[in-house]
Amino acid sequence: MLLHLAVNNYAIVDHLELELDRGMTVITGETGAGKSIMLDALALTLGDRADSGAVRPGADKADILATFDISDIPEAQQWLEQRDLASDEHQVILRRVVTAEGRSRGYINGSPCPQQDLKALGEMLIDIHSQHEHQSLLKTDTHRRLLDDYAGASELARQVQLAAQRCRQTEQALEQASNISEEQNARQQLLSYQLEELDNLSLQDGELELLESEQRQLANAEQIMQSCQQIINICSESDNGSVLQALSACLNRLNGLHHHGRSLGEAHDLLTGAQIQIEEAVGELSRYLDHFEADPERQQQVEERLGVIHDLARKHRILPQELPALQQRLIDELEGIQQSDADKDRLTEELAAYREHFQQLAAKLSATRQKAAQKLAKAVTGEIQQLGMPGGQVQVELRPITSAQYPLQGLENVEFLVSANPGQPAKPLAKVASGGELSRISLGIQVITAQTSRVPTLVFDEVDVGIGGPTAEIVGKLLRHLGERGQVLTVTHLPQVAAQGHQHLFVRKEQRRDSTRTCIDRLEGEDRVQEVARMLGGVDLTEESLAHARRQLAR
To answer: pTM to 2 decimals?
Structure first.
């Protein structure tokens, strides 16, 4: 229940504080006085969108605070506890601050929160019905929502919508996977063929470098042998004197000079070392030649192997040394295609499971709607007959949907049909109902759905537009009856409705030299009589209008 509302610098309100009670509270005042401003401010604390136009001219921010008693709303208590926002007093304070620049901040029990949290919690605390719902009643989406609310199937309808969306998304993903598979069949065949060629090639790590080295060696075998033999001859077997002979002669000469000084010993050692190294080199070259042989057959094999490698590289327009990397890329791509096939199989299985789940939920929703439709039609018919349409009949029609495989709204469309007069066939509201009839039907629906609402606070903002006379008194009694079960706030221009309230708030404008502000007074006793008389007879109060007002309030 709404306990307290404080509004600061909102629209034409500089400061306003209201203490609210249980029962039916009526809010009256001249047109333009700001009756709906209070409700608009309240709606901001409940998560409505805000803009800079909400801020009172000259102020830097608007600040609205609403306090609710949630002792009878266990869902709200649980919601707060789950988010560590609960207080010890079974109360919750919603606050909204809007700056002149249009920025907005929300708070729950003093803790900052996003707008969607305010909206989620607000839906558990209060339900606002406005005159704009009369026009929204012409939309079949509204009909479906009202039926689901009445049937207590709003959560089930949300689950059906989510299940349908999941089916659609999975089906779309499967279609994309199937299209890709068709395109990739040819690619898969090509990859398999290319990989078979590379597998048959079986190029080993470092093999290309070894083959190229061997090929160079085999191609130059004769030259190599001649060069090695020439080196051996120069070093040890030349008729003209070899390197080793020259070194031996040098050493002999040094040996004859050793008595001239020990300083020549180092030179002697170096020449001895050179002699040893040349002898070792000659030995190595000899052994190389002993094992070296020109192999034309092997040369042909190597050249053929290199030819195959280079041909395959040219085919793929890459360098021969890039073939191993190409093979790995092709393997990765082929595995990706094979994974796509696996994904396709997985998506097919998932879609079948999701489709079954959707059908189960949708069938349950359809059964719930079918059962509630007759009850709602009967209840609304009873209400509109009391509201000045004695021959009126309302039907709730459920039409199967065949145009979509996974309709978001369930397996059927919902539409309210009305017959305004006996003997007339029931037709859609837009084709039958006049403005006044639409108001009555809308009010009847709102009253019925409000009776099934678990929300303790109901707000009716000029929902009695287009209604007058004895019907207005019936409307007032209906709203009073709702107020006896909880808390009802009603903005009205009808004296018959205003007279039924347990409390009466009067909204007025107070004009100053350079500003205008909205004020709200709680009316009691004679003040309330005068306000009802004003609503009955206009500005000039007469004894007749005052007496009429007293009779209205005495009922």
So the answer is: 0.59
Residues 6+ apart with CB under 8 A from 541: 530, 533, 534
Same domain for 216 and 283:
yes
Q: In what order do the strands lie in the sheet with 91-99?
A: 13-19, 2-10, 61-69, 91-99, 104-108, 111-113
Confirm if 459 and 39 have CB atoms less than 8 A apart.
yes
Q: Strands 23-29 and 487-491: what pairing? A: parallel
Could you tell me if 80 and 90 are in contact, meaning their C-beta atoms sit under 8 angstroms apart? no
Q: Are residues 218 and 331 in the same domain?
A: yes
- C-alpha distances in angstroms, 409 versus 141, 213, 351, 399, 489? 9, 75, 19, 12, 32
- Backbone phi and psi for residue 207, each to the nearest 5 degrees, phi listed first: -65, -40
Distances (CA, A) of 391 to 395, 419, 424, 444: 13, 8, 10, 14
Alpha-carbon distance of 70 to 126, in angstroms, equals 11
Domain span at 297: 185-336
Q: Give SS3 for 128.
A: strand
Residues 126 and 197 in one domain: no
DSSP 343-412: HHHHHHHHHHHHHHHHHHHHHHHHHHHHHHHHHHHHHHHHHHHHTT-TT-EEEEEEEE--S-SS-TT-SE
- Least Cα distance to 490 among 14, 36, 54 occurs for 36
In a domain, 425, yes or no: no
Among residues 407, 415, 467, the alpha carbon closest in space to that of 436 is found at: 467
Distance in angstroms (rounded) separating the CA atoms of residues 167 and 63: 44
CATH number where 511 lies: 3.40.50.300
pLDDT average, residue stretch 309-331 = 87
Per DSSP, the chain holds a count of helices (H) and strands (E) of 18, 15
Residues in the chain: 555
Structural domain contains residue 108: yes
Per-residue pLDDT tens over the stretch 6-20: 999 998 888 888 899
Total domains in the chain come to 3
Bridge-based pairing state of the strands 427-428 and 23-29: unpaired
118-144: per-residue pLDDT in tens? 998 988 888 877 765 556 677 888 889
Label residue 305 exposed, middle or buried (CB < 10 Å: 0-12, 13-18, 19+): middle
For residue 302, tell me if it sits in a domain.
yes
Whole-angstrom Cα distance, residue 420 to residue 43? 34
Give a three-class secondary structure readout of 93-111.
EEEEEEECCCCEEEEECCE
User: Would 272 be classed as within a structural domain?
Assistant: yes
The tokens for 17 are: 């504080």
| Residue 393, strand partner residues | 419
When pLDDT is cut at 50, 70 and 90, the band that residue 261 belongs to is: low
Same domain, 2 and 103: yes
Place of tokens 């030349």: 238
Question: Can you spell out the DSSP letters for 145-164?
Answer: HHHHHHHT-HHHHHHHHHHH
Rounded Cα gap, residues 62 and 17, in angstroms: 14
CA distance 69 to 234: 115
